[in-house]
Design goal:
Elements lengths: L4 H9 L1 H33 L4 H48 L3 H7 L2 H14 L1 H26 L3 H26 L2 H21 L1 H6 L3 H53 L8 H11 L5 H23 L21 E8 L9 E8 L4 E6 L5 H8 L7 E6 L2 E2 L5 H7 E4 L8 E2 H5 L8 H10 L10 E2 L8 H15 L3 E5 L7 H14 L4 E6 L10 E6 L2 E6 L1 H7 L2 H16 L1
Parallel strand pairs: 3-10, 3-11, 6-9, 9-10
Antiparallel strand pairs: 1-2, 1-4, 4-5, 7-8, 11-12
Helix pairs in contact: 1-3, 2-3, 2-6, 2-11, 3-6, 5-8, 5-12, 6-7, 6-11, 6-12, 7-10, 7-12, 8-10, 10-11, 16-17
């Protein structure tokens, strides 16, 4: 199926290890059949008191076959698992390569718990495709053909019985299992994703649920999801055991068939009695290789369902465009220009941006202001190449943005987003994300510039910054941007949780630090914008005004009205 194309390509790249695994599996299977056949023949020969050298030869053959079987089985396990781990490594790399460009939009439309279940569980499920689906039928056919040829040398009827047993093990039993398996494995995976999703939301929202008295209710809901998943897993396990039981039953049925048929042939002088035990043990042993066929439908459906969910996540059918090779200059601050840019988020009914025209000179300071939902943040996301504009063109240093590699933009940008992520570790760990190599003294100075001088570099930071206030998170995000540096500063509401005095002190230091750089500030606050080279006023995805602070105030337009409303609110609050 199309969803497994990447997996098959990864298997082809590991064809050397796969070939060794198949060879090892074939030798181990044939060696096992030969071992027990020789053992049966040895037992039969002892009845007739053969010469000592005959027993010595037979015993030596049995020992050699035992060693050969053990060594080849070890090689089969070694190379098959080595190939599997390499295939999984390639799958993860390929999947994340497709996932990263889609991450911003994906986080808007998918619940994090479900996404985590796909990234971890579904990728892991594909490890069974080679070991449990693609590999066993190949070895089974090879070993069975060798065994049938061996048996046909003594009795064509017993060889035919083995062929009938092979058909039953390879087709009839898997078909019976598949009949009841179609919906069970899919339900298990969906319920596992639902459990993962609800568990993640319970952990993320623990405090709010506790405060509002809903923790027990959500806990009960999580337990219900867990119980449903356990029931579905139990049903899947029982169904799998039923298939294995059918295989064991078929094995003994064929073995008894060989015994009865062999006895009949002996009575009719069509088979020497000394070979009966050999053929019975050969028949019983060869069906060990067919045991994997009983579980093949389950693993096949599991792998296909996992591949389908991964394909749905990254949409592999849509080829990603090749990455451009252009880059920004390391020495100069970039100019930024948006010409007729329009953009609409997926599943949104209205455009986020409509025919935007903005020009920001190199080294200039630009503020983008407007009400919530006016498209301010979207402009920064487009500049970072998190999304591509639907219409129009964005240029940096007069180069089209689609000709610049995204890593080049990120390398030269000091970014503060509205929702910055903080990793579990220390203040130092969260400052040096790009291994900037700053000294302890330099880092402490940066903390002081961000009004965090009371923090030590070894102070602990919890996951997602849970032990930091909103204001401390914003200041730490600003300190991180200061530590990284860059000729392009993209700041999205960097001080919305700070008081006015702290905000003014940080802005003075920040503008001094970025004096010769291009700085774009997104803010809903209108204070402290007097020193900006230009102010872009947005509303409902369009630019309604643009100019310096004095020009906009003299115009007495939209910006002036917003400023008057802010003054009144500040006056009433005072």
């Amino acid at each position: 199926m199309s969803e497994l194309t990447i997996l098959i390509k990864a298997m082809l790249r590991e064809r050397r290890d796969i070939a060794f695994a198949i060879a090892g599996g074939f030798v181990a299977g044939v060696g096992g059949v030969g071992l027990f056949s020789a053992s049966g023949y040895l037992i039969s020969q002892t009845v007739f008191a053969p010469p000592l050298y005959t027993l010595i030869v037979l015993i030596s053959i049995v020992k050699l076959l035992g060693l050969l079987r053990a060594a080849s089985r070890y090689a089969e396990r070694l190379y098959s698992h080595q190939a599997t781990f390499s295939i999984l490594s390639r799958l993860r790399t390929s999947f994340f390569a497709k996932l990263v460009p889609l991450a911003p939009s994906m986080l808007r439309t998918r619940r994090s718990g479900d996404l985590l279940a796909r990234i971890v569980g579904d990728v892991e499920s594909l490890q069974h495709y080679f070991l449990r689906v693609a590999y066993p039928p190949i070895v089974l056919v090879m070993v069975f053909l060798a065994t049938v040829l061996f048996a046909s040398a003594y009795s064509i009827w017993i060889a035919g019985l083995l062929v009938l047993g092979l058909l039953g093990a390879a087709f009839v039993i898997p078909a019976v299992i598949l009949r009841g398996q179609r919906n069970i494995r899919g339900r298990v995976r969906l319920h596992r994703a639902a459990l993962s999703t609800n568990a993640a939301e319970l952990l993320y929202g623990f405090l709010e649920l506790k405060v509002y008295g809903k923790l027990d209710e959500r806990g009960q809901q999580l337990r219900r999801h867990s119980d449903v998943l356990a029931d579905e897993q139990q049903a899947a396990g029982i169904h799998l055991l039923n298939g294995q039981s059918l295989h064991v039953g078929l094995t003994y049925l064929v073995t008894w068939g060989v015994l009865v048929l062999g006895g009949y042939l002996i009575v009719n002088d069509s088979l020497a009695g000394v070979f009966l035990a050999m053929l019975v043990l050969a028949a019983q042993t060869v069906f060990e290789e067919a045991g994997a066929m009983a579980t093949l439908p389950s693993y096949k459906q599991d792998s296909e369902h996992a591949a389908s969910r991964l394909a749905e996540t990254v949409q592999p059918g849509e080829a990603l465009p090749p990455q451009p090779e252009g880059s920004l200059s390391d020495d100069a601050p970039p100019s930024v220009e948006l010409n007729g840019v329009s953009f609409q988020y997926a599943d949104e009914w209205r455009p986020a941006l409509r025919d935007i025209h903005i020009r920001m000179a190199a080294g200039s300071k630009t503020a983008i202001v407007g009400a919530s939902g006016s498209g301010k943040t979207t402009v920064l996301e487009l500049l970072l190449k998190l999304y591509a504009p639907a219409q129009g063109q964005i240029r940096m240093n007069d180069k089209p943005l689609n000709e610049l590699h995204e890593s080049s933009i990120w390398k030269h940008a000091a970014v503060v987003l509205q929702q910055g992520h903080f990793f579990r570790g220390t203040i130092r760990d969260n400052l040096l994300l790009d291994e900037a190599g700053l000294s302890e003294e330099e880092l402490q100075v940066i903390l002081g510039q961000a009004e965090l001088s009371y923090k030590k570099l070894d102070d602990e930071v919890y996951e997602r910054g849970e032990n930091l206030s909103d204001g401390e998170k914003q200041r730490l995000a600003l300190a991180r941007a200061m530590a990284k540096g860059g000729r392009l500063w993209l700041l999205d509401e960097p001080t919305s949780s700070l008081d006015a005095i702290t905000e003014q002190r940080i802005y003075r230091r920040l503008f001094k630090l970025a004096a010769n750089d291009t700085l774009i500030l997104v803010s809903h606050r209108l204070t402290g914008l007097e020193s900006m080279d230009q102010i872009i006023v947005m509303d409902h995805g369009t630019v309604v005004e643009a100019g310096t602070y004095e020009e906009l105030m003299d115009k007495r337009g939209y910006f002036y009205e917003m400023k008057e409303i802010e003054r009144q609110l500040i006056g009433e609050a005072g």
